[in-house]
Structures are given as structure tokens and as C-alpha cells.
Amino acid sequence: MDIAAFLKFLEGSGLANRIRESLFLFPLIEATHVIGLALVFGTIAIIDLRLLGVASTGRPFHRMASDILKWTWAAFALTAITGTLMFITNASVYFHNFFFRTKMLLLVLTGINMLVFELTAGRTIHHWDTAAAAPRTGKAVAVVSLAMWISIIFMGRLIGFTTTRAAVVTPSPTSVDFDDFLQGTPSAPAVPPPSK
Amino acid sequence: MKQFAEWLSTTFLSVFIQNHNSWVIPTIQSVHIVGIGVVLGSALMISLRILEFAGMDQTLRQTADRFSPWLTGGLCVLLATGILMIIGEPVRELVTFSFWLKMFFVAISTLIAAIFQITLRKHERRWEETLVHSSSIKGLAILTFLIWACIIVLGRLIAYDHVWGSWSPATKA
User: Of all helices (H) and strands (E), which one includes residue B85?
Assistant: First the structure.
């Protein structure tokens, strides 16, 4: 199956139809996505600021990581699930959207960034666990992480501005021109407003 | 309110934002979301500490001292970007049910946060020794976090105010 057919398959799935046809589902899924990403960014920022020596400098790093990162992963799962649900409602549009692609690339890069941390400063945590800040590689990873997550938020918001939400197809009057609107007849087809 | 919104949309700053809306509005909204992340992350850590799910190597006071300045700072960013969004799109924001319900919840959660800050400083020992262990305070911590989550949902629903049907002033216009 090629990618275009796969995207069409996703769009045609029962779940995608269900979300598109509902008045509430897409907005609620999108709102849940915002809650999830706010928690992902908020908790990652706490860890990054600890690495940089900006905040929580008095707490052992391993303690904070074990306290916080499980919530980050739970929130990430929520964000990934809600993101996938939004994606399937209009898969071929999102797939070709520049900001969607950039966002996905950035997500992969944050994963690589995390791997870099595990292979460098993450290996010597016992040396700097109670120090005010991480060694230079750890700080670099933190700066890159903050920059990428903020960029991911910007990209996500721009996706909403550059794609039109999939509308339930309603048969629209074939020849509506501007004069018809001025005279108030016939009425415009009911299309949900673009998601901003 | 509709008249006020329409007047606001003719002011200089509003016209500027409208004329550059291809990048200004997404940028303001994105900064707003970054602020939401800071506030919700901070609220989560304070709630988790009260619920004894995180930060148990810290006292409640230490946890509050670490996160409440960020919560307050984040709220200031949200207020500033929120006001800019209202100025940029007054009718879209002010003539919605979601916006006003959101403001109601913002008032409640800000009040709870302020009362928590003040009473924690005044009665530190009582908070650390008894209050933090009481189930009503734990319940309140969960409730407060849920209110923050509701605020986020309502914020997003401003763009979809038609979901409220006849409650939405936007659908009557």
C-alpha cells in the first residue's frame, strides 16, 4: 500500500468519520492535546532548568528525574494519542503540511537529543547529581531541548492556521456568487469555521 | 459588549494586529501556550507535592517557593498575551460563552493560588504538619488542577464557541 492510499485509508476509517461528524469531539480532542503538551513542555522545562542550574539547584538531579519524568511520559502518551486522532481526520492534508512535517522532524530530533544526553552527561550523573548544574554537554542538551520544544509548540499552532479542518461534506448550492450573499439567499452551506 | 468589541477592533493596535495577522496571531497564541505550559507544569508540581506523589525530599514551603514565582510569572505572560489576543480579535474573543466562563474559572483558580501562598507563609508549621495531610486539602489540590485543565479546554473552545449552541452569543449574531 502506498502512502497516499494509507492516508486515505486513515481518513476513511470509522474512527475518523466519527470524529469529523461530531460537533464536540474534535474541539475536545484538540483541548486535551493542549493539556498534554502543556504538561510535556512544563515538566521538561523543569528538568532542563535544573540541568542549566537556573532552578531547583539544591535538589539531586536523579531525584527530580525519577519524580517528574514519569509524568512527562504519561502526558506525552496523551498528546501522541490525541495528536494521532486529529491527524486521521484529515491525514492527507496534514501529511503534506510544511509545519506538520517540521514538527514531526523536531519531535524526532528531541528524541535524538535525549539519546545524546543518555550517552554523555547522563552516564556521569553520580558525579554531578548534587552540583548546581550539569556539565557542559548536559547544559547544551537542555538549551537544545527548550528551543526545540518551544519550536514544536509554534509549529503545532501554525498547522492550525495553514490547514482547514476537514468538514463534513454537505451538498452546497452549485452556483452561489457574491450577490446571493448580499441578498441573503440562498444561505451559505454550514461549514465549521477554520480551527484557529 | 458587542459594541465595545467593535470599538476595540478599530483601535490602532487592533488594526495593526489584524493587518499582520498571518504571523502576529499565531505567534501570540504560541507564546500563550508556552505560558500555559509553565503554569500547568508548576501547578502540577505543587499539587503532586500536596498529594505526596512527587517532591517528597522537599517541604511544602520549599516546593511552593520553587514553583509559585514561575506560576505567577507564567500567569503574567498569559495575561499579557491574552490581552493582545483580545485587542487583535475582540469580537472573536469577547462575544463568546467560552471566554467568559474561562474568565470565571481563571478568577477562581487565581484566588485559590493566592490564598494558598498567603496562608502557607502565615501558618507554615500548620500547613507542613497537619494541613498537607488532610484529605480535604488533597481534594482541593486535585480540584484546583482540574480547574486549570478546564481553563485550557475553555480557552480552546473560544475557537469553537458554536458547540455551546444557543448559549453562545456568537451563534445569535
Answer: helix B60-88
Alpha-carbon distance of B15 to B148, in angstroms, equals 32
pLDDT exceeds 90 at position A36: yes
Q: Which residues of B touch A56 (CB under 8 A)?
A: 66
At B22-58, the pLDDT tens digits run: 889 999 999 999 999 999 999 999 999 999 999 999 9
pLDDT over 90, % of chain A: 80
SS (H, E, C) A37-91: HHHHHHHHHHHHHHHHCCCCCCCCHHHHHHHHHHHHHHHHHHHHHHHHHHHHHCH
Cα B92 to Cα B9: distance, rounded to the nearest angstrom: 10
- Best of A23, A47, A154 to disrupt the B interface by mutation (most B CBs within 10 Å)? A154
The residue among B146, B35, B48, B38 whose CA lies nearest residue A43 is: B38
Contacts of A40 in chain B (CB under 8 A): 37
Q: Which of A161, A165, A168 to mutate to test the interface with B (most CBs of B within 10 A)?
A: A161
pLDDT band at A188 (very low <50, low <70, confident <90, very high): very low
The distance of B67 to chain A (nearest Cα, Å) reads 9
Contact predicate B5/B94, CB 8 Å = yes
The residue of chain B nearest to residue A155, with distances taken between CA atoms, is: B30
Residue in A with minimal Cα distance to B69: A55
Do the beta carbons of residue B18 and residue A18 sit within 8 Å?
A: no
